[in-house]
Amino acid sequence: MDFVAARQRLAGTRRWVIKIGSALITDNGRGVNRQAILQWARQMAALRARGIEVLLVSSGAVAAGMDRLGWPKRPESIHQLQAAAAVGQSRLVQVYEQAFGQFDCCTAQILLDHDDLSNRTRYLNARSTVRTLLSLGVVPVINENDTVVTDEIRFGDNDTLAALVANLVEAEVLLILTDAEGLFTEDPRDNPAAELIREGAAGDAALMGMAGDSRSGLGRGGMTTKVRAAQLAARSGACTVIAGGAVEDVIERVSSGERLGTLLLPEADPMAARKRWLAGQLQVRGKLVLDEGAQRALSDSGRSLLAVGVSAVEGHFRRGELVSCCNGAGVEIARGLVNYDSSEAARIVGESSERFVELLGYRGDDELIHRDNLILL
Ligand SMILES: Nc1ncnc2c1ncn2[C@@H]1O[C@H](COP(=O)(O)OP(=O)(O)O)[C@@H](O)[C@H]1O
Ligand SMILES: N[C@@H](CCC(=O)OP(=O)(O)O)C(=O)O
């Protein structure tokens, strides 16, 4: 793998999930670290200004709640943990909204549980809401819905949740900020001579052997869940960077390709991995019938599907759902995520994108399906 090129490619990516762990958020349990949050918000706002969509997965509800309630030690009882999370979460979102507000960014709280990502309808709902927020320029601030989850359905650690969110929105990058400067050959708390792994393959089994558990009493999974998160994120083609959240301007520096932290890459070409993942994840909701020119544009030239090359629309689907692309004889040649609802698609098929405003009342995307969201069969 060409790691130098992979680092540089980070600068050209368009959608990031950034996860910040409990120890960082609470300055090692000393209360919500407003100063640090302001710095991260500034950097995330700068990413947004460069056209990069940012989703934040923030831990820290339990730790912030413990601090607010004056509890020195993490409670054992699930009900006390849930109570602490309820107290801490409201404080967290208030701090985020204020911090992002200083950089003209709006935030939205999203609390997810296991069902939201495993149940198909709720998965699509979550996906549409998050995508809508992103299109509005809002930064979603996501956490596990700690007050309602039970042990059986708990993600447990936000590394896993962040990776599943990266899958949900097909992010290109998962940046995990923690209190270590990346993955070391062993826990630097045990061995100060341990060396930083700068780059690797997310699926490399040796990495798990290096990763240890959390020690802080605030975080949950240590490096084990971070390496596993990189593996999960790789399924939809995302690369993962594990880096030190306390490093100055870490988000901006990683996003400009600087060699900070640990970069873990998907084995397959990111685009191929993402397409394979897409094909296996979603149900086909409808069908588009392509004329011969469009069939050639897709199959021979790997181009996007334009409305002008479509002669018919079948089924009922919404923007972002998976549709099948067939030739006149009904043979499926491709699948992809469609940019328009079925009723809108029916109005624009056979037409060039110049007429979209007239036909739909707004311009929208030029492509019916962008080539990045198309899988040839
Ligand atoms: N190989 C390793 N390299 C770096 N840190 C490690 C390693 N193994 C275990 N750790 C521990 O993982 C911790 C970070 O994980 P965790 O406490 O869960 O943080 P977070 O709250 O950010 O998720 C570090 O403080 C470190 O002690
Ligand atoms: N949902 C919990 C997350 C706990 C957790 O996973 O913490 P971490 O290992 O620091 O990401 C909270 O907000 O406290």
From TrEMBL:
Protein's cellular compartments: Cytoplasm
InterPro entries reported for this sequence: AceGlu_kinase-like_sf, Asp/Glu/Uridylate_kinase, G5K_ProB, Glu/AcGlu_kinase, Glu_5kinase, Glu_5kinase/COase_Synthase, Glutamate_5-kinase_CS, PUA
Catalytic activity: L-glutamate + ATP = L-glutamyl 5-phosphate + ADP
SUPFAM superfamilies: Carbamate kinase-like, PUA domain-like
Binding positions for substrate per the UniProt entry: S59, D146, N158
Binding site for ATP: K19, T178, D179
Principal location class: cytoplasm
Pathway: Amino-acid biosynthesis; L-proline biosynthesis; L-glutamate 5-semialdehyde from L-glutamate: step 1/2
Key words of the record: Amino-acid biosynthesis, ATP-binding, Cytoplasm, Kinase, Nucleotide-binding, Proline biosynthesis, Transferase
TM stretches of this protein: none
Ranges where the PUA domain occurs: 286-369
Enzyme Commission number: 2.7.2.11
First-level EC class: transferase
Recorded family membership: Belongs to the glutamate 5-kinase family.
Physiological role: Catalyzes the transfer of a phosphate group to glutamate to form L-glutamate 5-phosphate.
Name of this protein: Glutamate 5-kinase
